Each structure stands twice: as C-alpha cells, then as structure tokens.
Amino acid sequence: LLGADDKAAIAAGVEAMQYLVSNPDVPHGDVRLVLLPDEETGIRGAKVLDVAALNADYGICLDCCGIGEYVTENWYAGSARITVKGVTAHPMSARGKLIN
C-alpha cells in the first residue's frame, strides 16, 4: 500500500513488481501493488480502500523514515533492516555503470 505522495516508495514498488514479472524463477505468492492518495489510517484514501477485497495474507505499507528504514504498518508496526547493494549514479554520468 503506497501513498501517491511517496514517490520513492512508489518507484521501489513498481521496480519490485517488474523484477518479479521479469524473473519467474523467483518463488513468491500472489503480489498486489496498491497505490492511492491519503493512505494514512483514517484519511480519505484509506477509508475507501476495501482491504478485505484484496484477500491478502500480509500487507506492507511502505512509508518514509530514516535512510534504510521503512514503516510496515501504521498501528501495529514491525520493522526490518534492509541492505541494498548497488552503484549510486545519475543516468547522465553513468554510461556503462548502471545495469537493469
């Protein structure tokens, strides 16, 4: 579940979905990416989302915190540490460095 104001999380979610589609050998269950405005509990976007209709066993609400952290829920929050390995570069100066 991603709010439209959180562009970095939206990009990460879309990239994760693209990765799963492009790599069918990676084991995973059914995955749904939900994007809506005002995703915080009690606000308009969250109120109109029918969570039961998603029929999901788990949900992750990616939201901002510090670098390397994310919020997994609004109320009964858990946490995880994620390490991403890669190359930091801007496409204008990364010829030959970035690989999709």
Structure description:
The protein is mainly alpha-helical and 100 residues long. It has three helices and two strands; from the N terminus they run βαβαα. The protein has helices at residues 7-22, 44-48, 51-54; strands at residues 2-3, 35-36. The chain has a two-stranded parallel sheet.
Neighbour order of strands in the largest sheet: 1-2
Backbone CA Rg = 16 Å
The helix-and-strand class reads mainly alpha
Low-confidence stretches: none
Number of helices: 3
In oligomeric terms, what are we looking at? single chain
Structurally, the number of domains stands at 1
Approximate helicity band: 25-40%
What is the β-strand count? 2
Pfam families: Peptidase_M20 (PF01546)
Keywords: Hydrolase, Metal-binding, Metalloprotease, Protease
GO molecular function: metal ion binding; metallopeptidase activity
Protein name: Peptidase T
Short description:
This protein is mostly helical and 100 residues long. The protein has helices at residues 7-22, 44-48, 51-54, and strands spanning 2-3, 35-36. It has one domain (1-100).
List keywords for this structure.
100 residues, mainly alpha, Peptidase_M20, ArgE/DapE_CS, Peptidase T, protease, metal-binding
Summarize the topology:
Layout: E1 2-3, H1 7-22, E2 35-36, H2 44-48, H3 51-54
Parallel strand pairs: 1-2
